[in-house]
């Protein structure tokens, strides 16, 4: 297994933030104004949690180029229910003010994750790769966020989609290098309908702000973001604990 190297890990850490890094001047301006944007508030509220996420569990191993194939497969399988719940909620509220601004981008990852799992493990992946308790809890929380007007889903799209757009391309290259994964096993990181992912990320970040402006309780969106990061940390640690480090095998991946 080939490591990424210190410089590459630092680059990925910077770019895997789920929003464009915010300068001290921007933060100072936000503090001086009456109310920062919700995306800025999400960034500030989850900054420490993001740093913790990168230092713990399977995510730490992935960023260091030290994760096993089995560990990556288990993570992907346990992220899938959260994406399903999020995308079901976005579809359910697709005509609602705010959520409609996000749904129009059609960034759905569920089919790509399922395709990757089939390529990695075979068609019986859903029977052979376990769903951990932490994965179930995360998915249930996302489903709960879709209740009511669904506006708390903004926090989960911030955490997941903006994170995928920020660090996904580098992580895709890292996984191809360290785990020798093939393009057909990494479609989760592809957004084939968009020619410029940097433009997409900037546009989606703006859409998140515009959607959040319509939320009756913007602070609930910010706090939901902190919950989302905490649950990602719990899932990352659960995956790392479930994968043997010596043999690093899951039966379906052998």
UniProtKB/TrEMBL annotation:
<feature type="binding site" description="axial binding residue">
    <location>
        <position position="50"/>
    </location>
    <ligand>
        <name>heme b</name>
    </ligand>
</feature>
<dbReference type="Pfam" id="PF01126">
    <property type="entry name" value="Heme_oxygenase"/>
</dbReference>
<dbReference type="InterPro" id="IPR018207">
    <property type="entry name" value="Haem_oxygenase_CS"/>
</dbReference>
<dbReference type="GO" id="GO:0006788">
    <property type="term" value="P:heme oxidation"/>
</dbReference>
<dbReference type="InterPro" id="IPR016053">
    <property type="entry name" value="Haem_Oase-like"/>
</dbReference>
<feature type="binding site">
    <location>
        <position position="158"/>
    </location>
    <ligand>
        <name>heme b</name>
    </ligand>
</feature>
<dbReference type="InterPro" id="IPR002051">
    <property type="entry name" value="Haem_Oase"/>
</dbReference>
<keyword id="KW-0408">Iron</keyword>
<comment type="similarity">
    <text>Belongs to the heme oxygenase family.</text>
</comment>
<protein>
    <recommendedName>
        <fullName>heme oxygenase (biliverdin-producing)</fullName>
        <ecNumber>1.14.14.18</ecNumber>
    </recommendedName>
</protein>
<feature type="binding site">
    <location>
        <position position="205"/>
    </location>
    <ligand>
        <name>heme b</name>
    </ligand>
</feature>
<keyword id="KW-0479">Metal-binding</keyword>
<dbReference type="InterPro" id="IPR016084">
    <property type="entry name" value="Haem_Oase-like_multi-hlx"/>
</dbReference>
<feature type="region of interest" description="Disordered">
    <location>
        <begin position="1"/>
        <end position="28"/>
    </location>
</feature>
<keyword id="KW-0560">Oxidoreductase</keyword>
<keyword id="KW-0349">Heme</keyword>
<dbReference type="GO" id="GO:0004392">
    <property type="term" value="F:heme oxygenase (decyclizing) activity"/>
</dbReference>
<dbReference type="GO" id="GO:0046872">
    <property type="term" value="F:metal ion binding"/>
</dbReference>
